[in-house]
Amino acid sequence: MASLTLRKIHKSYGEVEVIKGVDLDIDDREFCVFVGPSGCGKSTLLRMIAGLEEITSGDLLIDGERVNEVPPAERGLAMVFQSYALYPHMTVRDNMAFALRLAGVPREERYGKVAAAAKVLQLDQLLDRKPRELSGGQRQRVAIGRAIVRNPKVFLFDEPLSNLDAALRVQMRIELARLHETLNATMVYVTHDQVEAMTLADKIVVLEGGVIEQAGTPLELYHHPRSLFVAGFIGSPRMNFLPVTVTAAGDGGATVSLPGGETVAVPVRAGGLRPGEKVTLGVRPEHLQPAAAGQLEAEVLVVERLGGETFLYAQLPGGQMLVVQADGENPTRVHDRIRVAVDPITCHLFDAKGLAVERAQRHPLADMRRPTARKAS
Amino acid sequence: MRSSLRERILITVLGWLAAFLMFFPIFWMVLTGFKTEIDAVSTPPKLFFTPTLENFEAVRARADYVHFALNSIIISVAATALSILIAVPAAYAMAFFPKKRTKDILLWMLSTKMMPAVGVLVPIYLLAKDLGALDTRWGLILIYVLMNLPIVVWMLYTFFKEVPKDILEAGRMDGAKPKQEVWMLLLPLSVPGIASTALLSIILCWNEAFWSLNLTSSQAAPLTTFIASFSAPEGLFWAKLSAASTVAIAPILIFGWMSQRQLVRGLTFGAVK
Known about the structure:
Chain A is of the alpha+beta class. Chain A is built from eight helices and 20 strands. Chain A has a six-stranded mixed β-sheet, sandwiched between helices. A five-stranded antiparallel β-sheet of chain A has the order 13-12-11-14-20. A five-stranded antiparallel β-sheet of chain A has the order 15-19-16-17-18, with no helix packed on it.
């Protein structure tokens, strides 16, 4: 198993710079997820780690050793592709054994290893089939099996679940999490699905425009987003943003006036804020509550009932939309006027540049790490 | 959007008409081969007549068909094998490692096909003479390789483009060297494409007349020379010429017939997507 280090990694295609200096440490046995909108450079970054794309400048280290010029196969990595990229003319067994065959491993030994990996992935019955005779989920497992057989130092996943239907995706997500536990391996995973990122990752790396917006544990990103972009990207439905004006600021917090005139004292380190400054208040739908004494008044335009919870899409007098997550028993109907309570402790403030004002209290779970599974023997 | 009955009938009739127009000359040639010389030139042309084998007998007596046919087979197969051998690495590089000018190079290669061959006849003839390549199989093979390479590279390029890049990259991650990547992944995945390309190349070589007539006389002469020898000084003997042509095209016609499915797939590849 291994650690990965990226130092000032740049990538340009001709004049166009797509990765603009990435510094990142991925620890041994860590599950690291690159997430971001399409075109943010997450796949390019993964392909550079894999060795499929040249690194324009910067250093890539595996276990402390610079591998920029080392060919893909000798980096000790295995990659699972979005399209699975199985070899269509080979059986499942030969697909999984291909790397070993190229490495000159004797037939007996490589089929033995394939059989062992197939057992873990419940592919034993399918070894003699061709990829076209498999379902999407089975192909996915073969692609993972092909990676496992090589016993790599690091697993790379490029949006591996995006071709599966929703139900299968949830199931494979759980299998992947268990696999990480069993294999005790370092994994780097690219996705644009923030739910996958939140559920699988030890560390999420949010990329935007070729730079890292923020890297941290899932709950750190959820509770302490560094910027408007991260705040909007992590969490579903996305965070509500309201334009507000600072009325008083100090080290203990900042008081802001909400649309409608009420004020809220947000507990942030507001030393840098001045009264009269225009800032953005961020509050997640799940932290808003319909309440008779709420500070905001809004008209409900859409009601989404999921059974266990209800999403209310409401419009403030100023025209801004607000999403409120209420419980499943909420009787609100379209065109009802409701009042919404804002709990100051759950609020975020972002300055004019879109950067977060540090919250006064660190969330107790923000730095929680998954206990390292079994020690590597 | 369903076409009406009338449209479908029209399309069917047009299809039959086109097929008939293309097939008719071959049909007439085969028919003429079985006529006497007098029947062959009679006006109006005779559709019904007493068939005779005398032309085939005459053709057999005058020239060694097997010698020419063997030359045709050896030259077309060898030229095809050689062009594919050269074109595979070229098309691989162009399809999977395109550079800024790759498209231009492809177009330029194809554009050489637009030049009339007669324009380079004299230089090629002199070169062949100096190299001792006149009337040799290898000389003709070389010319055919050069003649067909643009088309072969172009076709393989389009077929290789259809192979998902991910598969080759997965191979690279698994430790495949470029040679293994081509041999163990790319070629097995493009067998149908390579087959169509080879078929087309063989047919083009077989039918090529300009260079074979100019650069060979007897030793290395393929069937085209064999046919031409029947439009000889004594005048045109339509029935014998037809008989000779029939036996000359018979092998490739049967070959083409058997592989037509493969050929059609190859020629329309990329066109229907």
